[in-house]
Design a protein that fits this description.
11-stranded antiparallel β-sheet; 3% helix
Amino acid sequence: MGAQPEQQPDDVRSLQLDPGLGLPVRELERGTDAHGEHDHRRRVGAAGRRTQRLLDVESNGLRRARRVPNGVFSILRAGVDRSTAAALRGTAPYGRLALQREWDDGVQSAMVGVFGFRVEKYPDPLNAVGASDTFSDVGVDAQYQYVTTAHRISGQFGYIREAQHLDGTFGQGNAANARNDLRTVNAKVTYYYDVRYGVSLGYRRVTGDADSVLYPSGVAVSGSASGRPDSSALIVELDWLPWRDRRFTLQYTAYQKFNGGTTNYDGFGRNAKDNNSLYLVAWFPF
């Protein structure tokens, strides 16, 4: 008897890999509070006894920046560090088209999708005026799931290419290039037994154009002697779910490259593997 794919325990968000200096804006904006967000979705499907196809079309937009720092609703932003929160110019449109298919009575399913995202962001969130930076992301992703009562296997892949037009940052002297590209690859394979014991293997790679000002040297640990954001790592994760709403995770991240280098990447003798990390996480609702 097949189980539903959305019940898979690894749907719970795991810890994310710190990729170094470079990260597409599409990922930075995930989870952004989008008050007044418009979400128009249309689904077109054809179903049979054993096979189901589903076309998912989605579009929305993040809210524009607030120019008045202290308005009547400013109390609702209490505790939010405005110096690090993104200040957007206009609306940031997002669109996604995905094709999904289920077969074998829902035991197996696959999805492939494309998406695009564009945002104009002010370099200084505390001064949302003047020239802004434009980030245009285009990506593809895919997923496969095999779900039965005892065994659950899933694989995910994603690729994002981001074009950066840094008119604001370049004009302020905080970037060496007015145009940069950034590319991100994510891949993950997960296996669960009896919805209780799980193991995941992930890979993440970030590459981008060299920019000695945007990715500066002369800074220990977080600096880049080569002026590049290139980073890559393998992630191994073990999960134990003693109950459905309890989860314990042990995750190890091993860097092959960090901020453009394998050895002495920051110019101060630090190697990529020195950033390897081990996490023990307990997850439970309350």
